[in-house]
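Q: What changes when adenosine-5'-triphosphate is included in the input?
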Amino acid sequence: MKRIGVLTSGGDAPGMNAAIRAVVRKAIYHDMEVFGIYNGYQGLMEGKIEQLNVGSVGDIIQRGGTMLYSARSEEFKTDEGQNKGIEQLKKFGIEGLIVIGGDGSFQGAAKLTAKGFPCIGIPGTIDNDIAGTDYTIGFDTALNTIIEAVDKIRDTATSHERTYVIEVMGRDAGDLALWAGLANGAESVIIPEKHEPFENVVDRLKRGSERGKKHSIIILAEGVGNGFDYGKKIESATSFETRVTVLGHIQRGGRPTGADRVLASRLGGKAVDLLLEGQGGRMVGIQKNELVHHDIIEALKQKHSLDMSIYQLMSEISI
Ligand code: ATP
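A: The predicted holo structure follows.
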C-alpha cells in the first residue's frame, strides 16, 4: 500500500490530534503518502482532501479538538453517499483509510470495507463506549476535566453546606460518571448500567449529614436523565439545599493528558501497521495494556461493558 487517508468523524475528543500525528508520521516512515480528509465523511464525499507531510502535523500533539475537523453526515449513511466517498478516494489514488471516531464512524468504516475499500477504525470518543478496547482516546482527558471541575465545586459545596448534583457526559455509558465518582469521592453515582434506588441515595445523604458532613456530591451520567430533575427530587425528599451543575462541553475540550497522548499515538501507529499488512475492516484498541485489533462489525455487535467492580468499591467506601 502506497497511499493512505485519515479522517476524524463524529464528536471530537482530546487526543485525536496525537492519533493523526502518529498515523501521518508512521506512514511516512514506511514510505507511504498520507492524505488528510477534512470534515469527516462529509468532507470525503466533497473531496476535501489534501496531502499531509511531517510538518503538517507539527505542534498539534498538545492540542484538543482535531486539526482535520469533524462532521456528521446523514448522506454518508446511504449507499450513494458511500459510493461518492469511494469515488473521491479513487480519484486521489488512496488505497486504505484510517477513521478516528466513535461507533457511528465505525459503521461508516465497515460499510466502506464491505464495498472493497479497506478501513481501520481508531476509537476516539470521550464516552469510552466502544467494545473491544478498555479505553477510547479522550476518556482520560475528559475524566480529568471532570475531576478538576468537581474539586472546585466541592469547595463551594463545603462553604455553603450544600448538596450538589453534577451531570456529566457519556451518552449511554456510565464510565465517566463512575470513574469521576470514585476519583472525586462522591456520595453517589447514578449511571445507566446499574439502577440505584432513590431511597439509597437519600439515606446516604442523611447519614452523611448526621455525622456532620458539610457537603455532598452526586454524579449523574447524562444517560440516566436530567440533572435538574434529579436535583429537585433530592431537595424535595431531603430539604437539603441542592444545586445542579451540568458540566457540558468543557468535557470535550482541552489539552490531552499524557495517557491520552500515549494511547492515541500507539493506536495510530498500530492502525498503520494493519493497513501495511493488507488488513481492512478492523478496529484497534487496548486491552489489559496490550494493543489488540478486532473485526469492526463483530466489535459493533458487542456492548461495551463497564467495570462493575469499581461500582462495588464505590458503594463500599461511600458510606
Ligand atoms: P460520537 O460517539 O463521539 O458521537 P460517532 O462516530 O458515534 O462519535 P456519529 O454521529 O454516530 O458519531 O457518526 C459519525 C458519522 O459516521 C455520521 O455522521 C455518519 O456520516 C457516519 N455513520 C454513522 N452511522 C453510519 C452507518 N450506519 N453507515 C454509514 N455511515 C454511518
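Observations recorded in class: Residues 196 and 208 are 17 Å apart (CA to CA).
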